[in-house]
Amino acid sequence: MKKILVIDDDMTFVAMIKASTDPKKYVVESAGNGEEGLERIKESIPDLILLDIRMPKMDGIEFLKEMNEKFGKEKIPVLITSNVSSLDKISEGVSLGVRGYFIKSDESLQGIMGIIEQTLNN
Amino acid sequence: MTVTVVSSIIACIAVGVNVYLVIKNHKVKEILGKKEKDVSHRMYELAILKELGDRVGYSLNVQEIVDVITDSLHQFIEYSAVSYMLLEPEKVIFKMHLENSVHRRFVNDVRDRMLGSLGALLDREFDKKNVEEILSGAILVEEIEEPVRSFFNIPLVIDEKVVGVMTVADTKEGLYKEEEMTILYKIIQQASKAVTSLQGVVKTEQAKVNAMVESMEDGVVMTDSDYRILVINPAAKRVIGQEKNKEVTIFDFIDNLGGKMDIRGRLEESVKLKKDYVSERFGIKDRFYQAFVSPVRTMSDLNEGNVLGGVVIFHNVTREVELEHVRDDFTSMIVHELRTPLSGIQKASELLRMPKKPASFAKQYVDIIYQNSSSMLDLVNDILDSAKLQAGKFEISKEPADINEVMSNRIDFFTMSAAGKKIQLTSSVEKNVPKNVPFDVQRLKQVLNNLISNALKFTPEGGTISMNVFVHDPGVQVNTETEKASMHLAEAIPEDKFTALPQSLVITVTDTGSGISAEHIPELFNKFKQLDNKSLAPGIKGTGLGLAIARGIIGEHGGIIGVVSRVDGGSTFYFTLPLLAQEPKNAV
């Protein structure tokens, strides 16, 4: 069982990920913003984080900085999942040690599942 | 005998008459001659002034002007030499034009006399060593031992300041009378008057130009061809972070601009190739600039003019860069906000298409599609409204309507969502509120939707949202009116916003939410300022266009909109609708 933490304020996206992952292979947890995300990690370290950029309270970039500080850089694989169009934020994320990124609206759920599997197997 | 006597008498009379006529004739001639002379003096004066005008144009070069006078003076006054002395900052120019050859001593004598009179006029000593001598005309001849016998000085005065002296000298004695002196004096006075007034004009113009350059927001630096700074304004000093009163050199610019712009190289290129240069944008500290470098040429002829140096203009583009950022942020926010529901719809449909999923999931996905498409529609409408507002094409149709009905309609609409968050939603309309106030019902619902949904967002579970409607009368304190209606407000409403209002409806929406810190309030109704929703308030989501649109709608009604808030104590949003139709205005 692999644990995926989805940190995203887009509840639809969270629901879609939960609905399309194989429950025999994955446990999906969610957090509505960076702060909640840090709480979840404190409880248990996930195998993969799907991280949104634009979120209230604590956005994805701040979350990455905090997480790197508290849990060590590149300890937990992170995929940035965003609908943000500018690459600035994404490249900032890359400099903070994320594994990759995808634009939510550019990928199908099946495609996302493929990316998740690939990241976890590497 | 008698005949002789008579003829003698006649002869005498004739002689007398003749003598008289001769004398009279002589006198007339004398008068005529004097008149002629006067006329010729006048003509000469005029001619010389015309020549001055023609040859010197608008030159302010005193030497050039004095040259014109000395060149043509011999037409009128007889002299061996005409000369002038002009004061320069470092030296005295002494120029002498000889009509006849003289001895060297003659020249020295005139020079010393002139230095003496210049010294007397200015009350200071002049050293012969500082005199730069220029001789022209006839040559010096050692054999002619004629001293200076006639001589007079006319001081050269420009703008009430002695700038030099002009001298006419001759080897003959008693040559110059009052008349000659007066004429020369008059000419010089006229020329001086012309120069003084021209200088006055130039001074005024220069003062204008200086004031303009000084107060320009763009930095201006002019250098000579050796990169010495000739002109610099405070804005240019600000570019490199220097104080207004500090002396700066080109090296200060070189040091501070670093690799951002090669100011010296660009100036050199510009001056040598007579070419303009426009730099890329570059940032210094928190400001952005674009530099324009051009050669500075003399005004006479732009193509062939001499290059005096170069000018660099630092155009401050910080505002443009900021605006571009705001626009980019806005675009990416819109893209984000549109993609999110679209991608939700896409993903939900994808799940619906999967054959394996049980049918019971279908309703959930259809709900998601419905919610996402609705929120997208709202967003598209908001974008459209804000675009219309910006273009000034926002239209409202006012009809007499009952605010009471609109309020209860909205209460009904939001009851479900409020109940979901265990929030109490109430409204109270004062009895004296008329039922036929002109407003656009649909647009007013839009304003209320925005205020109520915001309040719902920020009010924690168990809180309350209360709405009130009352009539504000001119001259009455609005806070007295709210007290009378026993309303609860987050804070007192600022009275000054209400002083100029006509009789109006006041609608308030008060929540018990997190409140808004004072520094964010001014940005709240501004379309581009609230993009950074993190800084606005924790937990807010969406485009933030809603309040900007609300402000536009209320403005179109001729009302005002505002907010009072206390952090952790809740907020009261208020807006007004005039009881009688008013001209649209800025609502904040």
User: What is the largest interface, and how many residues per chain?
Assistant: A-B, 23 and 28 residues
What gap, in angstroms, lies between the N and C termini of chain B?
A: 128 Å
Give the end-to-end Cα distance of chain A, rounded to a whole number of Å: 16 Å
* Low-pLDDT sequence parts of chain A: none
CATH class of chain A, anyone? Answer: Alpha Beta
Number of separate helices of chain A: 5
Oligomeric grouping of the chains: heterodimer
* Proper CATH architecture of chain A: 3-Layer(aba) Sandwich
Radius of gyration of chain B: 46 Å
Which class do the helix and strand fractions of chain A yield? alpha/beta
* Cα radius of gyration of chain A in angstroms: 13 Å
How large is the share of residues in beta strands of chain A? 15-25%
- What structural category arises from helix and sheet content of chain B? alpha+beta
Helix-strand string of chain A: EHEHEHEHEH
What is the name of the CATH topology of chain A?
Rossmann fold
| Uncertain residue segments of chain B | 530-540
Give the overall average pLDDT of chain A.
88
Fraction of residues in H or I helices of chain A = 40-55%
Let me know the number of strands of chain A: 5
Question: What does this molecule look like?
Answer:
The complex is a heterodimer of chains A (122) and B (588). Chain A has 122 residues and is an alpha/beta fold. Chain A has a single domain (2-120), classed as Rossmann fold (3-Layer(aba) Sandwich), CATH 3.40.50. Chain A has helices spanning 11-20, 34-43, 60-71, 87-95, 109-121; strands at residues 2-7, 26-31, 48-51, 78-82, 100-103. The radius of gyration of chain A is 13 Å and the shape is globular. Chain A starts with a strand and ends with a helix. By secondary structure, chain B is an alpha+beta fold. Chain B has helices spanning 2-56, 62-72, 104-122, 178-215, 234-239, 250-257, 263-273, 318-353, 360-391, 403-420, 441-458, 478-484, 533-536, 545-556, and strands at residues 81-87, 92-98, 131-137, 150-158, 161-170, 219-224, 229-232, 277-278, 282-284, 287-297, 307-316, 399-401, 424-429, 437-439, 464-472, 504-511, 561-566, 570-578. The radius of gyration of chain B is 46 Å and the shape is elongated. Chain B starts with a helix and ends in a 10-residue tail after the last strand. The relative contact order of chain B is 0.05. At the A-B interface, helix 1 of A face helix 8 and helix 9 of B.
